[in-house]
Amino acid sequence: MNRFEKATERAEAASEWRRDENMLRQAEEIRKAESRFELQRLPEAARGALRRYLEDGGPPGGFLTAILANDFVTAVGHADEENRAAIVEFATWLYWGCPSPAWGSYEQVNAWIAKRREERD
Predict the structure, then answer these.
(1) Treating both helix axes as pointing N-terminal to C-terminal, what angle do 44-56 and 106-120 enclose, rounded to 10 degrees?
(2) Burial category of 80 from C-beta neighbours within 10 Å (exposed 0-12, middle 13-18, buried 19 and up)
(3) Are 42 and 86 in contact (CB under 8 A)?
């Protein structure tokens, strides 16, 4: 193997390492969000959708999008009985546990989705 091939191989390995490091950092960010406020207090369907949103940029649906956008009037309008009963838990989780770039407005929610999808692809 010549020097160019060795350098190319090392560069590819370093690039793969950085990707792995970014994935680990993202996973740690999710774990921190879950540990700072127990997602177990939220309805099960919401927990799964929030994990998909935070990890992969999966669109969370009308109710959770409104929650993440800090639009609680719309959220209550979209909420089923179980989610309506947990509305304070959602607000508490946003404040204490959700990564700040992931919530606050519809623009921030859309930017988070785009960023996560870009990183994933």
Answers:
(1) 60
(2) exposed
(3) yes
Alpha-carbon distance of 39 to 93, in angstroms, equals 8
pTM: 0.69
Token pair, residue 15, equals 């690039």
pLDDT, tens digit (0-9, with 9 covering 90-100), for 81-113: 999 999 999 999 998 888 899 999 999 999 999
Element (H, E) at 43: none
DSSP-derived 3-state class of residue 70: coil
How buried is residue 39: exposed, middle or buried, by Cβ count under 10 Å (0-12/13-18/19+)? buried
